[in-house]
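Write out the bound-state structure for adenosine monophosphate.
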Amino acid sequence: MPEPLKNIKGTQDILFEDNNIWQYLELTIHKFLNKYGFSQIRTPIFENTNLFTRSIGTQTDIVSKEMYSWVDQGNNNLTLKPEATASVARSYIQHKLGKKNPINKLYYIDVLFRRERPQKGRFRQFNQFGVEAIGSKYPEQDAEIIALAYNFYKGLNIKNLTLKINSIGSPEVRIKYKEALKKYLIPYKDKLSKISQKRLETNPLRILDTKIDFELEIIKNIPPIIDFLNQSDKKHFSKVLELLDSLSIKYIVDNKLVRGLDYYCRTVFEIQSINLGSQDALCGGGRYDYLIEELGGKATPAFGFAAGIERLILALNEKELSLSKRPDIYIIITDDTYLSHSFKISESLRSKNLVVINDMLRRSLKSQMKDANRLNACYTIIIGEDEIKNDKIAIKNMDSGNQDYVSLNKIESYF
Ligand code: AMP
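---
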């Protein structure tokens, strides 16, 4: 016998009732984002590799070591999407969406791939939903989207939410800040991890993402980036905070929040839940005013975020949602002579949006009854020789045990 095959590390099969929460969340996401005027965009699962090297940046973990890339039979360098923003931006430019509409408020629910070390809440194939509002440079766009993200989680009753927010300023501010950070960190260089030592040269901002205790100690007193912002960056940031205050949304200004990707500027934010453990980020995002231009489009400001769905499921209290699905009716027939009866009844009941199960294994009456119990059906309908002869079909309420008898042509109106 050949060895049975297994799924790839960091991927998962989602089986049976575990799908209830996925279906519920997908529907909730669509409804919720439509309320804010966002419309869905679907982009391909793979793209040209250079879309990601150009947008995410070669210094990042994603591009340097986590992408699933290959050369196809036509010698094209292709990559499974590690994040969706670059694809949305590519599509925006390609279809000239900016010409059709001065503001494009888009959202996606997508599957992404990163070759990270799998652990709780971290997969190699994972799902995100996210929004990208392309066209507005104003702080109200930042505040609307941050409030949207926060209220989404609140609406799902997720406890222990923390909204962290920061401004990383304009690109010229960041150049100055990187220098200041480097100056601050150089005396500690030998104490830093190998990777941070490298980052000190390539992108010292990334050191602030560290989770290592002794590095956290070193960066405790870094100069805050807020002190380096120019006047218009400062004005922008205080308007964002003022609007969040007006909605009574609590936040922490965290001067170490810089986000991993190169294309962010000004406002960045992250929502965490301590329910999640070490992988505590539910979502993250911010302003990316230079990405569209970087990818060959006309300079267009934008704001967005991406949210992990597996993490959301980990943080949720599924019991509170009571998502279990029961079939409304299980039709039991005593032998295959009555198949056409059960088929007709099932279809007419389904046309009334009822969930109806028929046995496909020609099981005994007793086994069908057992199966109806296993599935927790609300009602069973029994069809056999006597029932048809007397035109008296038994309908049993499985919760109360009560049984009614109706004629064949009255079954549909009974429900
Ligand atoms: P990012 O695209 O890295 O900004 O991530 C946005 C969100 O996606 C994170 O806050 C997580 O909720 C989720 N996420 C990122 N990477 C993974 C992963 N490997 N597995 C599961 N969820 C992830």
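---
The chain has a mean pLDDT of 95.
The pocket of adenosine monophosphate is lined by residues 83, 114, 116, 121-123, 126, 128, 281-284, 306-308, 310-311 (CB under 6 Å).
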